[in-house]
């Protein structure tokens, strides 16, 4: 006899949804957390869209609170209970700092970074709390299955248009009263994502104006202070001005330029009253309210934002609080953009100093170079050089340092000038590699000793990953060229580097060196060199592993002597055309742009 299912047996069970992520304590963490939680919930049919919206707002506020006030890595946990309720937990490693008071009280430790804090969480959650454990603090919230019963609004989206749609509509009798609801929360969350993704401060200010006008104010102006200034001053007038009526922008800009904000002492973000520029707004704008918000990030003033609303009503507290939240996110985005710009400038200057200003011209030879760093914003691990060494000799080098960034720059900064010095002092190819190998080993030893001394100086704490000096390995192809009647004598050696290839006019290809050990690995390693004669029409191709190891699925460009086959097809071409053809073949081999630095040098005897 078949069993009759009970009510409990017949009830559909919710799919188990749970997850955990550890995020760095950066402005990008809230957006990453929202994306992870949204991806976990959006395809579960039992989860109401309203609960997904509430979860996005709660996760954003909890993670933002942890990033700003704790400054440590953040752990985010979420789980969907059998009842359909969602529990979100956010853990940081700074338990001494309490979360913001949801009723608006200020925490005792400093000026708050965000205007409303956990009041938003308390609005959307049926319960929430804080759990303290040794070395950690967890803020949790439990959201009801259907979400908080509030008027429906558009679902949040990633684009500017969606963020604008989520903002309260202007000049609506009941609009301001709803601003603490789901629409305002989603607007703030999506605006944060939009701003955090920009790396140009001009674009950040442009997006700010589009987000604020006309949704939150009738007009907006943003001044950006010069980074060299320490306090006050708007730095030459408004960077940008926006108005609901495009025809008023020029007049408003002219009036505001005459009276830039004069921020008070200290680092208060605002809002502060600002004189109403009625002369620029016509008869309908003769009366209104303007508020100034100081843009502060990392304890430094970056500029000032002013918003204005026409009419006698002014701005409700809910609006000023929302704009204050937004202004702090704008400041963080501007600070991040400036940091990126500074780093890009430093990297560009450093990169120029690590590479030769010009490639030497060699009598009886033509040369061509392709150099494409993978990371346009930082020093590459690949380098090259071609220079006169005296006594009718020219030397060339193509190298690849393990890693990238500052550590690679240190190695290149050591290797390249020492190559030139040793070559001009008359050292031959093998001797140059012997001495450069010892130089790298000595430098690595000194760096390790310095790290050990620093460790003792801070109390002998255990060395964390990344604290110590990085291993400094260098693969290098180095050679010496001596032109003579009938061709060019080339003496060269490869230390852990892709072997050079010689292309003859008849399309035959041969290797021109034998493999040897990386530089900076083995103490007292002895290197040897080979000599080849380059006859007129012969071409020597030197590359880094960005060429040979270019991937397409599981295959590499040099599999089955792929580079030699590609070079064989270049017979009869000039040095410039050979370099360009190999570059095109490497780019076309993979489905996307190269994932490693790419350098190749072609030397052709005339």
Low-confidence stretches: 1-12, 100-116, 150-175, 229-236, 463-469
Distance between the termini: 97 Å
- Individual helix count: 14
* Mean pLDDT rating: 79
Tell me about this structure.
The protein is an alpha+beta fold. The chain is 33% helix and 24% strand. The strands form 5 sheets. Strands 12, 13, 14, 15, 18 and 19 form a 6-stranded mixed β-sheet that branches. α2 packs antiparallel against α3 (49-69), α3 (49-69) packs across α6 and α6 (182-196) packs parallel to α9 (317-354). The N and C termini lie far apart (97 Å).
Features:
elongated; 606 residues; five-stranded antiparallel sheet; disordered N terminus; alpha+beta; 14 helices; six-stranded mixed sheet
Map the helices and strands.
Elements: H1 7-10, E1 17-23, H2 29-41, H3 49-69, E2 74-80, E3 86-92, H4 119-124, E4 127-133, E5 136-143, H5 160-166, H6 182-196, H7 201-212, E6 219-224, E7 240-243, H8 249-258, E8 272-274, E9 288-297, E10 300-310, H9 317-354, E11 365-372, E12 382-390, E13 393-401, H10 405-424, H11 429-457, E14 474-484, E15 487-495, E16 501-503, E17 509-511, E18 515-516, E19 530-534, E20 539-543, H12 545-548, E21 551-552, E22 555-556, H13 562-568, H14 575-589, E23 598-605
Parallel strand pairs: 15-18
Antiparallel strand pairs: 1-2, 2-3, 3-5, 4-5, 6-7, 6-10, 8-9, 9-10, 11-23, 12-13, 13-14, 14-15, 15-19, 16-17, 16-20, 20-23, 21-22
Helix pairs in contact: 2-3, 3-6, 5-6, 6-9, 7-9, 9-10, 10-11
